[in-house]
Specification:
This protein is of the alpha+beta class. It folds into two domains: 40 residues; 127 residues, Jelly Rolls. Helix content is 42%, strand content 32%. It is built from two helices and eleven strands, in the order H-H-E-E-E-E-E-E-E-E-E-E-E. The strands form three sheets. A five-stranded antiparallel β-sheet has the order 3-1-11-5-8. It has a four-stranded antiparallel β-sheet with strand order 4-9-6-7, with no helix packed on it. Strand 6 and strand 7 form a beta hairpin. It is rod-shaped, with a radius of gyration of 55 Å.
Length: 238
Amino acid sequence: MPVSKDFLIAVCVAFVAGFLYIQERQIHDLYTEFRQEVNSMKLTHKDEIHALELKFFDYYKQDEVQRALSGIERNLDEKTTMMNEIMANTTREILNQIGDIKNKLGEPVAFFSRISQHHYDLPPGTIIKFDDAKLNIGEGFSSSSGKFQAPEQGLYFFTWNYLIRTGTNAYIGAYVSGKQEVDTCTYASFNSHILASGSLVVKLKTGDEVWLQVFYKQADFLHSTYTFFTGHKIIAML
């Protein structure tokens, strides 16, 4: 009996379908076996895998920390540079101000001197020689002449004290380059002793002189312990 063409085609299709089914099952079984093997490996080596994960995580965190630290270091460097500039500018300003103050004040000038012994019966016109100089910064005061000579132009302050005893008189004036500027006196005291004092603020030119001098009438007595002359420069002036 002859085989028809359609039958042969059907047989071929069935054969191919069966073959493909078998191949699909084999592939599925192989994949299932592979998955089981992978899962088994994961279970076997899970500690190693976890360690690798932690190591990666730590590396990632360290990298982030390092980047953060680098940013902080850059910020600190910028702040340090800025602070150094501020400090340098501030220091220059302070030094300039100190220089200005020094220029205004000039070199220090001050003196303090007393008479080394009692003075008696000094006639008018006598310059009192304060011969016991305790301080003479700037060398403006002469204990031999009793005069102060301004080493530079500026504003100066002077003060003096003197002590007399009962029944004596003393007229003491402050003179600036020959001109009497201040008068002080004690007259016919009935106390055992009496103290007089005076002061003067004056602008002097370089070389101007200041001294104390008896005027009007005789100075009967000046006590050495309590008779002194002192002065200092307040500020230099152009």
